[in-house]
Structure formats: C-alpha cells, structure tokens
Amino acid sequence: MITLPKIYNVQFVALIATLGGMLFGFDISSMSAIVVTDQYINYFNNPSGVIQGAIGAALAAGSVLGSAIAGPLSDRFGRRDSIMFACLFWLIGTVVQVTTTSVGQLIAGRVLNGFTVGITSSQVPVYLAEIAHKDKRGSLVIIQQLAIEFGILIMYFIGYGCSYIDGSASFRTAWGIQFIPCFFLIIGLPFLPRSPRWLAKVGRDKEAIKTLADIQAHGNTEDTLVLAEWNEIVGAMRAEREAGKGWRKFFRNGMWKRTMAGISVQAWQQLAGANVIVYYLAYIAQMAGLRGDVAMVTSGIQYAVFIVFTGIMWLFIDKVGRRPLLVCGALGMGFCHFVVGGVMATHYVSVPGGVGGNANIVFAVRSGAPANTVIVFSYLLIVVYSLTLAPGCWIYAAEIWSLGTRATGMSMAALSNWVFNFALGMFTPPAFVNIQWRIFIIFGVLCVAAAVWFWVFYPETCGKTLEEIEIMFGSDGPRPWNTRRGESRLDAGIETARYGQRKAATEGDHSENLRAGAAKV
Fold first, then answer.
1. Among 229, 320, 472, 510, which is least packed by CB within 10 angstroms?
2. Can you give the residue ranges of the Major facilitator superfamily (MFS) profile domain (predicted)?
3. Where are the domains of the chain?
4. Whole-angstrom distance, CA of residue 437 vs CA of residue 434
5. How far apart are CA 491 and CA 474, in angstroms?
6. Which residue in 372, 382, 381, 379 sits closest to 289, CA to CA?
7. Mapping DSSP to helix (H, G, I), strand (E, B) and coil, where does residue 362 land?
8. Do 118 and 66 touch, CB atoms closer than 8 A?
C-alpha cells in the first residue's frame, strides 16, 4: 500500500482542513447573491415566505443529519477520513443543484450539500483542536471561521457576476463553481496526519506519540513538551475508561456541564441573530432604499468586513480569553439589534406589493438618516459578531469535551447549531413579512439573555490543555466567573520533565566518572 508523505506544519494543515469551512461559506452565499436576481425570481416563480424559508433552511436541514452521524463516524474512522467521506455528498448535492428544474430539486440538492457541511463543521474544529498546542489552539481553530468567511465572500461575488448571465445559466454557473473547493479538499486530505489523540483513543500509541512529536517538536519524541502532553492524554484516557461507555458518560459527574455548555453555546450563536444580517442583508439594503448594483455591492461588502475583523481577532484570540469575547460580543450585538429595530419601528412605510416586486420585502425605511442608520448598525453588528461570537462559539465548543466524548460531543454541539439555524431559516422570511421590524427587538432580547448565560455557566478555557479543561467543569472546579486565561498545569509538567532529564543526565555523568575512576584503579 502506498503511503503518502504527511504535512506537519499545523498552519498549513489548518489551511487544507478548513477548506471544509469554505464549502459551508460557498453554500451560504450561493443563495445570498442570487435570491434577489430576476433570473432566480422568474424561474422559481417568485418564492416567498415559507417556500423561500424552506429553500434557505434546506442547507441547515441537511446539516442536522450530517451532524447527527458525524461523531460516531469520526470515532470509528478518524477525523480526517470522516471529512473525506463528507465530500462525496457535496459532489452529489452540487450536481443536483446545477441540474435543478424545480424548487423541490433545489431543496434536495441543498440538503445533500448540508449533509457535508454538518460533518465538516463539527469535525474540522475537533481535528484542529486536537493537533494544536494549547497556547495556539484558538488561533488555529479560528482559521475555520476565516475559511467560511472567505467562502462566503468569494461565492457572493461569483453569484453577483453571474447575475449578468441571462436565464437559468446565471445561477447554474454559480452553483457549479462549488465543485472547486471540494476538489482541492479531496486532493489535500490524504497528505494530512491523523489526530494524535484519536490514534491514542484507538490504541495506536506508537503512531500517536510519533505524530504528536512530528507536529509539536519536529519529530523529537523525547521533547519535554511531547512527554508532558502525552502524560496528559494518558491520564485523560484512564479517567474516561473509569467513567464507562454509552450516552451516560455525557451526563455523569461534571460531564453534564460540558454537554450543556457545548450544546448551548452553539444554540446562542444562532439565537444572537447575526445570520439574519449575513443571509438577508440584501433584503435590508433594499428596505433602506438601495437598488440594483448598489444594493448588491453594499451587501457584499459586509463579507469583506467579516474577514477583516475576524482576521484581526486571529492575532489576539489566545490573548483575550473566551469569556470576555462571548459576554461582550452578545451585549454589543444586542445593542445593534435594538438600534436597527428601533429606527425601523419609527421610520418605516408599508409596501404591500413588495419592494421592487420582491414579495419578501413588504416595508421600507425612510431615506436619509434613518436608512443610513439601519445600514451602519447592520454593518456594526457584523463587526461585533466577527470579533466575538463567530469565532468564539466554535472555539469554545471544540475545546470543552474530553477525549472520549470530543467527536460525538462536537457533533451534538454542531447539531444544536444547525437545528436552530434551520428553525431561524424557516422563521426569518415569514417574520420579515409578518412581524417586520420586531424581529430585531426579539434578537436583541435574546442577545442580552445570552450574555447572562455565558457569564454564569461558562468557565474560561483559554490557555489550558484539553485534558485539564475537564477539571474546570468538574464538581470541584472553580466558579466560572472566578476563572482566568492561562494558569495551565502543563507548564509545570514540562518543568518536571526537564528536571527529570537534567537529573538523569547528571546521574549519568556521575556514573561515568565512577566507572572512569574504577578503571584507573
């Protein structure tokens, strides 16, 4: 059997692995730029309300299914190979979308693509968290979020460019381009190493140590960092074996706290309402009086803003901690929702026939300062989200699980994300029609509730090993609001290992001197 060479530079590994995130981004904006085009509206008979909600939510529906099987699949075949398996469904789903002749076929294609996204969105963060050093884990996992955002931006402007193509070839061309990132992901995956923690979990200890050394210490299996981290992994596995098997392990002792945190942090990311802006800023732009190319470009700029500010956070994610990002981010987003909803409430006019004939947009905001305020605070909400909850929720969910529960636990977390994503996808288009500006007030209240939840229930995980995070959630763990970034016991373990090496070397030198003295006698 041919063994391909492996890449052990973690940043390069992350770039390849997070092409799975780019698939997610491509499928999101494959609709964002297209739903307002005449070609789409005419071909699918101006879908609105529940029908448009079903088209938009089909991705999330498929992702729910993918997330549900991702954990067992990843535990059985490994993180890397489960991502490869998911790619097959992306290829099939893209074919179904490109050849679509009806709303039903379009929904089916998006469900298949969503199945892929459900697996990759849950297992890519697991894979990255398991190969990363504790002090670099956040900046590595955040690459997944950046890949999603680059996918959204690239696909949005591809869709915008394709809007100048006549007829159904417009959206078929845009959807066909989704093959490209999947192709590169399939080519690159065989060159990635398996997760050392997964190898340890399935009993391949020698391979696990070698992979850990290749990733962390250029292949030196005697490196103090490698020795200390391996001891952490072994200790965690021993504790998990004592905890038993089955679903009970997700709720026994302090594990229920991690299960609650992992599931709820992903739910709150959706309930914070950022995806209303991400998916439907084109609608909001038209409500604010923007038309044609101006509305499309204005909507597209938000994705560039997304990338810029997530890129800024990439530099600081492991220096500011998780709790401040989550709490402050939720409050900041809530403020933006209240401003947008308040301005719309006091400066809107009904348009029963739909703005520009679009049946999903039945009210407009008066031009001038009110319309400008809505656009500015929609952008500001994206800025706050890209700095805080967008990367923070995925990182937190990937960090908190134990070795034996990580794949399935992250699968459960992603499942929570996609269930609420689906619900909101179905809710948002009808909500724009029926409750209009009140949708933003609802999301504002939910953001405040999220901030309180984060403060009360989530301990700080930044700068700690995956194994010692278990202590944070244990029955004897500290109160969440008393936890701080860093303070890792791995550093002490490294010093112990170094001391042991120095002592062994000193004793070895002493023994050599004794032998030399005996030889002279």
1. 510
2. 13-462
3. 10-200+270-482
4. 9
5. 21
6. 372
7. coil
8. yes
Q: Which pLDDT score, from 0 to 100, does residue 520 have? A: 43
For CA atoms 481, 486, 488, 490, give the dihedral sign: positive
Q: Tens digits of per-residue pLDDT, 95-143? A: 999 999 999 999 999 999 989 988 887 888 778 877 777 666 667 777 7
Q: How far is CA 255 from CA 249, 258, 405, in A?
A: 7, 5, 9
What does the pLDDT average to over 193-205? 85
Amino acid at 395: I
Helix (H) or strand (E) holding 358: none
Kindly report the length of the chain. Answer: 521
- Tokens 């981004």 locate to 25
Cβ atoms of residues 96 and 112 within 8 Å: yes
77-80 contacts, C-beta under 8 A, 24 or more apart: 78/194, 78/195, 78/198, 79/123, 79/126, 79/127, 79/130, 79/194, 79/195, 79/198, 79/407, 80/17, 80/127, 80/189, 80/192, 80/193, 80/194, 80/195
Structure tokens at 480: 């969440």
Q: Give the span between the Cα atoms of 86 and 485, in whole angstroms.
A: 35
Residue 331 has pLDDT above 90, yes or no: yes
In whole angstroms, what is the distance from residue 169 CA to residue 161 CA? 12
Contact 70, 211 (CB under 8 A): no
- Please state the separation of Cα 497 from the chain's center in Å: 35
Distances (CA, A) of 429 to 91, 279, 282, 458: 28, 10, 12, 33
The Cβ-side half-sphere exposure at 371, using a 13 Å CA radius, reads 17
Separation CA 189–CA 491 (nearest Å):
32
Among candidate residues 315, 401, 440, 386, the one with its CA nearest the CA of residue 25: 386
The conformation of residue 355, written as its DSSP 8-state character, comes to G
Q: Cα–Cα distance between 458 and 323 in angstroms, integer?
A: 7
Q: Global pTM?
A: 0.72
pLDDT digits (tens, 9 = 90+) for 263-322: 999 999 989 988 777 777 777 777 777 766 776 777 778 788 888 888 888 778 778 888
pLDDT at residue 241, rounded to an integer: 63
Tens-digit pLDDT profile for residues 393-417: 888 887 887 766 776 787 888 888 8
Closest CA to 172 of 278, 101, 87, 90: 101
The domain 10-200+270-482 is classified under which CATH number: 3.30.2290.10, 1.20.1250.20, 1.20.5.110, 1.20.210.10? Answer: 1.20.1250.20
> How far apart are alpha carbons 320 and 330 in whole angstroms?
16
Q: What is the spatial distance between Cα 56 and Cα 463, in angstroms, rounded to a whole number? A: 38
- Are the beta carbons of 421 and 267 closer than 8 angstroms? no
Estimate the crossing angle of helix 389-399 against helix 137-162, to 10 degrees. 130
Residue type at 191 in one-letter notation: F
Cα–Cα dist 264/126, whole Å:
17
